[in-house]
Specification:
CATH superfamily of the largest domain: Endonuclease Chain A
CATH topology of the largest domain: Endonuclease, Chain A
Structural class: alpha+beta
Largest sheet: 9 strands, mixed
Strand content: 15-25%
Distance between the termini: 35 Å
Radius of gyration: 25 Å
Strand order of the largest sheet: 8-9-15-14-13-10-11-12-16
Number of helices: 13
CATH class of the largest domain: Alpha Beta
Number of strands: 16
Number of domains: 2
Helix content: 40-55%
Oligomer: single chain
Length: about 375
């Protein structure tokens, strides 16, 4: 409607200019040039509006509390993080493995002049933050047996973003990631001050479970294995690193009971850390694909029967469940729109990958 009104306005102006030119006996050629300029200007403004609308990403809200973001579905993850921090009204909480992006660091430091900013980070992956963010931000380097590998951003104790994306230039702009946006004040409170390592909740009439690793590592792993073992039709996996032998065994068992598997690993990891697991899967006739190109496939996601999403910051490795400070989110999806988005993402991931060795069953 806005586009039609804009175009009608320019048509009206064009007619006014024609009357003016006729009244003053100006040439038809000049009339044509002015009319053409107005028409081009109108279409230019229309396309500017169209681009602005397409690139202005919505945040989760009370009305729409659950949103998926991925650069592979044309979402600007960096813009989502930057704008959410910029628009925060009272508080910013960040628990992050890698924080090196200059724009994000700048907006955190700037907002720290007005509201409390808490940053929990891994000092090995986010060096010299005290020099970059002090004195406006409160910094807490986290020491664990493994990595402080979480990626959680909470705004105003109600709006949450979590997933696989680090706050680094390459992760935000180039690597393949999935970020989950949630509006859920109780979950935000739990994540900022956890009283347990497990949290069950409902969002938009959809059941969800949250595991804080490594404390809930055993329970989280057991739940993943249970869900894979209960799969009836399809399992889609996109993993940066897959090395856990129990998960590989569960995937092989699913293949043997005729569940259709689509497994895509990061191309670099398939030649390195995931090479042994890849061999284990291939030896049992499981088809595996690897991502192509210079960017990383940084996902940590699994979709079961197109109804259950397993995601978070945790790679499918032993360290993720026993050493690293990680997170795991399980969503039981009912919303058709979210299911459609996940199906599209899985299709894109597969299209952008290549098969390693064994003919893959086609689902899409």
């Amino acid at each position: 409607m806005a586009c039609l009104l804009l175009f009608a306005s320019f048509v009206k102006k064009e007619k006014s200019f024609k009357r003016f030119l006729t009244r003053h006996n100006l040439s038809g050629f000049l009339c044509f040039r002015v009319s053409l300029s107005l028409l081009i200007g109108g279409f230019s403004l229309f396309f500017i509006w169209l681009v602005f609308t397409a690139t202005t990403t919505a945040f989760p809200s009370i009305e729409n509390p659950l949103i998926f973001y991925s650069n592979q579905t044309r979402d600007d993850i960096k813009a989502v993080f930057y704008r959410s921090i910029k628009e925060a009204k009272s508080h910013v909480y960040l628990s992050i493995y890698g924080l090196t992006d200059a724009s994000i660091i700048h907006i955190l430091k700037q907002r720290g002049l007005n509201i409390p900013i808490e940053v929990y980070y891994d000092s090995s992956a986010s060096p010299k933050l005290h020099k970059k963010l002090k004195p406006t931000c409160s910094l807490y380097p986290v020491k664990t047996k493994g990595l402080m590998h979480r990626k959680i951003l909470i705004l105003d104790k109600e709006l949450i973003f979590l997933g696989s994306a680090n706050f680094t230039p390459s992760s935000l702009l180039h690597h393949s990631n999935l970020v989950i946006g949630l509006y859920h004040p109780p979950l935000a409170s739990f994540l900022q001050e956890p009283t347990n390592s497990y949290y069950s909740f409902e969002i938009n009439q959809q059941q969800a479970e949250f595991f804080l690793l490594p404390i809930a590592g055993k329970e989280a792993l057991a739940h993943i294995l249970q869900l894979i073992n209960q799969a009836k039709k399809t399992i889609d996996v996109a993993a940066f690193t897959l090395t856990h032998p129990l998960i590989c065994e569960a995937l092989i068992a699913a293949k043997n009971r005729d569940v259709k598997l689509t497994i895509v690993l990061d191309g670099y990891s398939a030649k390195g850390a995931s090479k042994k697991a890849l061999g284990q899967l291939k030896a049992q006739g499981v088809a595996v694909c690897a991502s192509q190109g210079a960017h990383l496939l940084h996902h940590k996601l699994c979709v079961i029967d197109q109804e259950i999403l397993i995601t978070g910051s945790a790679n499918w490795t032993k360290a993720a469940f026993t050493k690293n400070a990680d997170l795991l989110l399980i969503l039981h999806l009912k919303d058709p729109k979210l299911k459609k988005i996940l199906k599209k993402l899985c299709k894109i991931i597969k299209v952008e990958s290549k098969l390693i060795g064994i003919a893959m069953q086609s689902r899409f």
